[in-house]
């Protein structure tokens, strides 16, 4: 309320206020229709300038309080608006807005255009027509002045989560307006608000202009048009009140001014009350209360209803008392005391509401952080008010974290009673000890750190227990108020955070009773096992709350650096073996590893114990460790077995069995193990008929025969290891050393154990691929059967044919063995010759498909402590040395052992054993890879080589035929060039015609076919009767009737002509001879074309096979063998090898050349045969065409220029065209063109070029 002198200036707030209206300042009430003057007098029409405005302004506010201030509403006016004493409508209705959330961002963009001010003239004031109206005491003031114009406001409102966010969003909204109009024609400019804020902004419009504003586009449009539209409005914006005693001193009214303190206090109380109510509303929308904790939601609803009642009481009291305080006729002291008490009571209720909101906010945050984490991990939700019966009707156990009991599930909160109280609290009168007792009794559960920690600890326990629980056990959260304690039959009240077990149709409190890690078991060694014993938790007759279903023992071997020595048999991360035992048992003796084999001897074992209950597994006990005793090795047992049974084992007459053999040479005792042949497989390659390619044998089949061997196809229980490499590089010795390690051979044993007998020169085992099957004799095998593949070495003295057989044998191996675990390339450590290793590397790499790339390893034999020289060479060649390299020196395992330096032998034994340990460690870590792809590669490779061999013969055959053809073509060209051309002169009469002069004719008899009159003056047939040769209608020359004659424009005469010609017999003789030669050539060309077509198809087939091989094979490089074969040929010639051997090497080289060309050129390898097909096919077509000509035509045709070669030249592939003879050139103005024979000569040169330069045929069939 703005007071100006004795006047009061008030905003119209959208009301239609007119001059002369009466007003009650006590109640802020306008009386429409009541005035002291006639309306026509005080509101008479006035002449106004419509084009002018008195004032125009555009302002914005970021709060409702700021908007009210800018609309001339003071504290009293705002309070009256909040108490609904006055109303804001029309363009001011936005001033009645209240906050819809605790934190709110707001922007009010207002435009006000003031057009003019109207007043009651002085002369009108003194001439009141309705003077008696002043007798009514309600009328205290009248409207003496009005300000008219137009006003409108666009409001942008959005809720926020905090005051900081509200300020940020308000600034964003404020930034939407960057232009402020200063008159009616100004425009607004906007800055885009962020998409996140745009979505949730509520847009509203208040104004005298009828507009629908619901979107940002609408708001911008209306805001842009507001200044112009408002300039035409004449609504009341403000009005001025004057007291009625100015008109009549007897109409004096006693009006009090309100105390600003009491007004401000009332306004603040109302505002804080709104904030408290909004907080309670927001609590009800908390996500925890949407489906969970209905009783907590009921507490909030109950207190909110009580607060709303108190808020309503306070509003009514303030709305009644404030007007009474303005009235000077009331008891001020009584009214002000009553108002103050109402304010104090409401302030107390606001404090209670704020306290309650703080408590519940904390409670809901604790509940959300706990419950949400559990539900997010799959715990079931039973917080929605389900009945307890529904939780126990299922047979499976349910483990629940309970949020029940009186502290959380009471129907009414303690503060609700305080909220309903009408008494003012005075805490200063109460005793401090009473306060402490009261606060302790009213402490919320979540205010106790001990309770909250207990809830979180229980939550963590359940989360850790759940992964080990059986699948049927259900974990969840629920509100359980009553449950049983173990061993009791009376229901008791639960506490928040209790763990409840729903089982056997009852709830049991099991807080603190979840399965815990037991004490470590007691360990002792008993025979070949570990004896464990432990104490059970069951005692007396008391049944535990959570029944135990079994005990679980887990154990594994662990390394012990102090006792294991330099060759530990286990790693630090071995897999645990678990045993599940009956709950009544309290001891067990584990005797087996997870593979079914006995425990490792002389090895530490780690043992732990766990308790398994109906709801899950406890933690593991503290590990206990015990060491197993050392047992006799497999090698020593084999030596004893042979000693007892040597007569039987050494019998050489047992069919299909290689006997055991003890070499008792002094200082070099070696037991060579016998083996029994399981299967022999002959080579499938037709080049090696009736030849054993693969032999599978069972090593030491008589020893401990009760130990079963896994099936060869069992990839989980059979480890297949392939040893391959160059011949003579210690591969057999390496296999012997590896087998000795597997069997536990020791340097101090009575004799060495070996499997491959490589004494002397007879090495039958290396003639084919031998697969040695060794059953799992010791724990070192991990229950796996070992299949050791000894592949014959490459590059031995038997030459290329031998290497070819090894390739074929390996192909049969892959068709026999379904998988491999590792392939080891075995070569001397100091072998660095690229010329030697290249073909061997190529042979080995070409054995496999690409899927074995990661399974290729390297073993360097004859190694020392330095870096192997072979490493760099193999790496340069492309062998994957990065997969793993192992250096060994197996000199302690050679057939002949030098024992003069026993310490050196012992060192070499240890050096070798270290390497064998690495090999076994690698094998145990690998996963099997199928051999299907490698088998396909080898089949394709053998197929490719066989087809190459056939194609090679066909190339020679077609090349020979091609050379014969071109020689015959050359002869044909010479023959055609000798066509008969000897001519003789002949004179004869020839009939000729002679043209007559213009207008003349000749008379010719059609019957006699003669000219009767050479030059006749009559040229018309109808005038022939007048010709001088016609007498009496008949010709005097021929005597025919004149009608038999006609008139001709020329005359016919006989002329003597002399000409030259070839005699007929010469032409015929030449034609017969030429046709005979061409007929023979056509047959030869047809046969050649058929053969060449077959060659083309075969080359394309080879190209496709090569493409497939390069896609699947680890390596395909025929060129790597060409230099190798050249060296073999050079050596064979130098040492005068038999001619058959040289032919064999030459054939191999030709095959490799063909393979290399096909690899390099792909499908382009068939370009040369295709070109020959096209060339000779075109020659045949042309030859056949000429043969069909009549002999004279043929003679003439041979003298006409021919384009056969030039046409062929244009169709040649670029690779051949570049080397072909130049085109002959066509007939032109200055050239005659070449004849058919010259074209045949050019074709001959072209075919020679194709056969000699650049193609597959040229590579093999070049002819000097």
Automatic annotation (TrEMBL):
UniProt feature, compositional bias: Acidic residues: 424-436
Region (Disordered): 419-448
Alphabetized InterPro entries for the sequence: Cytolytic_pore-forming_toxin (IPR052090), FN3_sf (IPR036116), P-loop_NTPase (IPR027417)
Coiled-coil boundaries: none
The protein, known as: Neoverrucotoxin subunit beta
Organism of origin: Fusarium langsethiae
């Amino acid at each position: 309320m703005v007071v100006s002198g004795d006047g009061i200036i008030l905003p119209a707030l959208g009301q239609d206020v007119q001059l002369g209206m009466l007003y009650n300042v006590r109640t802020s009430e306008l009386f429409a229709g009541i005035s002291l003057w006639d309306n026509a007098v005080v509101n008479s029409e006035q002449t106004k300038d419509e084009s002018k405005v008195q004032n125009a302004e555009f302002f914005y506010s970021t709060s409702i309080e700021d908007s009210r201030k800018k609309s001339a509403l003071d504290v009293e006016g705002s309070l009256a608006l909040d108490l609904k004493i006055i109303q804001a409508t029309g363009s001011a209705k936005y001033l009645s807005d209240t906050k819809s959330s605790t934190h709110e961002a707001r922007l009010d963009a207002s435009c006000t255009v003031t057009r003019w001010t109207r007043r009651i003239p002085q002369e009108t004031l003194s001439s009141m027509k309705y003077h008696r109206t002043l007798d009514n005491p309600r009328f205290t003031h009248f409207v003496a002045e009005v300000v008219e114009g137009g006003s409108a406001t666009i409001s942008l409102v959005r809720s926020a989560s905090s005051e900081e966010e509200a300020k940020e969003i308000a600034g964003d909204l404020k930034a939407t307006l960057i232009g402020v109009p200063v008159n009616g024609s100004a425009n607004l400019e906007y800055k885009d608000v962020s998409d996140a804020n745009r979505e949730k902004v509520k847009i509203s419009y208040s104004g005298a202009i009828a507009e629908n504003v619901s979107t940002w586009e609408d708001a911008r449009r209306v805001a842009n048009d507001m200044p112009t539209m408002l300039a035409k409005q004449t609504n009341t914006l403000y009005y001025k009140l004057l007291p009625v005693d100015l008109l009549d001193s007897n109409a004096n009214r006693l009006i009090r001014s309100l105390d600003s303190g009491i007004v401000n206090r009332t306004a603040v109380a109302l505002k804080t009350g709104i904030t408290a109510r909004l907080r309670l509303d927001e609590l009800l929308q908390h996500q925890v209360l949407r489906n969970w904790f209905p009783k907590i939601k009921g507490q909030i609803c109950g207190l909110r209803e009580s607060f709303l009642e108190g808020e309503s009481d306070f509003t009514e009291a303030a709305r009644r008392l404030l007007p009474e305080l303005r009235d000077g006729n009331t008891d001020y002291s009584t009214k002000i005391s009553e108002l103050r008490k109402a304010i104090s009571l409401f302030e107390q209720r606001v404090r209670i509401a704020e306290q309650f909101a703080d408590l519940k906010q904390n409670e809901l945050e604790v509940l959300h952080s706990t419950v949400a984490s559990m539900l997010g991990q799959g715990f079931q939700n039973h917080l929605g008010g389900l009945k307890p019966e529904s939780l126990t009707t299922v047979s499976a156990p349910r483990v629940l974290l309970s949020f029940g009991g009186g502290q959380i599930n009471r129907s009414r909160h303690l503060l609700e009673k305080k909220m309903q109280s009408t008494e003012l609290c005075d805490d200063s009168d109460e005793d401090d000890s009473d306060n402490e007792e009261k606060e302790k009794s009213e402490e919320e559960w979540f205010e106790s750190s001990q309770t909250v920690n207990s809830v979180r600890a229980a939550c963590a326990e359940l989360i850790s227990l759940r992964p080990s629980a059986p699948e049927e056990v259900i974990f969840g959260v629920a509100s359980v108020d009553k449950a049983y304690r173990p061993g009791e039959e009376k229901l008791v009240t639960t506490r928040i955070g209790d763990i409840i077990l729903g089982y056997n149709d009852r709830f049991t409190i099991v807080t603190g009773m979840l399965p815990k890690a037991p004490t470590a078991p007691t360990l002792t060694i008993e025979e070949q096992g570990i004896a464990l014993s432990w104490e059970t938790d069951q005692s007396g007759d008391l049944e535990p709350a959570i029944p135990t279903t079994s005990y679980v023992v887990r154990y594994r071997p662990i390394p012990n650096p102090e006792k294991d020595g330099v060759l530990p048999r286990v790693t630090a991360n071995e897999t645990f073996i678990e045993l599940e035992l009956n709950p009544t048992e309290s001891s067990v003796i584990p005797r087996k590893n997870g593979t079914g084999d006995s425990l490792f001897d002389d090895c530490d074992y780690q043992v732990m114990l766990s308790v398994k209950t109906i709801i899950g597994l406890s933690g593991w006990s503290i590990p206990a460790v015990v060491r197993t005793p050392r047992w006799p090795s497999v090698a020593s047992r084999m030596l004893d077995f042979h000693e007892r049974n040597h007569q039987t084992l050494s019998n050489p007459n047992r069919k299909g069995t290689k006997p055991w053999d003890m070499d008792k040479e002094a200082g070099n005792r070696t037991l060579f193990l016998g083996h029994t042949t399981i299967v022999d497989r002959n080579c499938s390659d037709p080049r090696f008929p009736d030849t054993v390619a693969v032999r599978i044998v069972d090593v030491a089949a008589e020893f401990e025969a009760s130990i079963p061997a896994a099936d060869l196809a069992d990839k989980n229980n059979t480890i297949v290891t392939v040893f391959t490499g160059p011949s003579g590089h210690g591969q057999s010795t390496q296999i012997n050393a590896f087998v000795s390690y597997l069997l536990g051979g020791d340097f101090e044993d009575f004799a060495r154990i070996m499997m491959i007998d490589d004494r002397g020169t007879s090495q039958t085992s290396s003639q084919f691929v031998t697969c040695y099957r060794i059953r799992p004799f010791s724990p070192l095998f991990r229950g796996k059967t070992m299949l050791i593949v000894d592949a014959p070495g490459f590059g031995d003295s038997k030459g290329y044919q031998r290497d070819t057989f090894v390739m074929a044998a390996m192909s049969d191996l892959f068709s026999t063995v379904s998988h491999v675990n590792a392939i080891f390339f075995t070569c001397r450590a100091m072998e660095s010759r690229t010329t030697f290793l290249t073909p061997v590397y190529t042979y080995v790499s070409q054995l496999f498909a690409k899927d074995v790339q990661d399974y290729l390893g390297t073993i360097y034999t004859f190694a020392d402590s330095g870096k192997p020289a072979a490493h760099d060479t193999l790496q340069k060649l492309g062998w994957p040395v990065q997969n793993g390299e192992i250096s060994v020196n197996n000199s302690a395992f050679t057939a002949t052992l030098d024992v003069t330096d026993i310490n050196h032998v012992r060192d070499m034994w240890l050096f070798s054993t270290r390497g064998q340990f690495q090999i076994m460690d690698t094998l145990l870590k690998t996963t099997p890879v199928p051999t299907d792809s490698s088998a396909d590669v080898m089949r394709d490779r053998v197929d490719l080589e066989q087809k190459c061999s056939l194609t090679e013969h066909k190339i020679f055959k077609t090349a020979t035929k091609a050379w014969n053809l071109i020689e015959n073509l050359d002869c044909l060209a010479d023959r055609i060039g000798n066509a008969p051309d000897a001519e003789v002169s002949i004179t004869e009469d020839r009939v000729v015609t002679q043209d007559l002069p213009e207008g003349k004719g000749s008379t010719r008899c059609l019957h006699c076919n003669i000219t009767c009159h050479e030059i006749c003056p009559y040229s018309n047939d109808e005038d022939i009767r007048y010709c001088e040769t016609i007498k009496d209608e008949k010709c005097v020359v021929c005597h025919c009737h004149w009608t038999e004659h006609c008139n001709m424009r020329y005359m016919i005469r006989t002329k003597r002509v002399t000409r030259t010609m070839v005699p007929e017999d010469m032409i015929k003789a030449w034609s017969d001879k030429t046709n005979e030669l061409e007929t023979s050539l056509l047959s030869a060309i047809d046969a050649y074309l058929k053969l060449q077509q077959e060659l083309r198809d075969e080359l394309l087939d080879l190209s496709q096979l090569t493409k497939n091989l390069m896609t699947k094979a680890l390596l395909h490089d025929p060129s790597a063998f060409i230099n190798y074969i050249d060296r073999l040929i050079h050596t064979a010639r130098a040492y005068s090898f038999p001619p058959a051997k040289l032919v064999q090497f030459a054939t191999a080289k030709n095959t490799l050349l063909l393979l290399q060309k096909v690899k390099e050129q792909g499908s382009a390898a068939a370009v040369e045969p295709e070109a020959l097909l096209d060339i000779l096919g075109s020659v045949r077509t042309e030859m056949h065409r000429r043969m069909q000509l009549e002999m004279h035509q043929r003679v003439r045709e041979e003298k006409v220029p021919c384009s056969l070669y030039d046409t062929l030249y244009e169709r040649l592939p670029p690779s051949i065209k570049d080397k072909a003879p130049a085109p002959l050139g066509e007939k032109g103005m200055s050239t005659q063109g070449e004849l058919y024979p010259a074209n045949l000569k050019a074709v001959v040169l072209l075919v020679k070029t194709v056969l000699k330069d650049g193609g597959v045929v040229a590579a093999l069939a070049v002819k000097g």
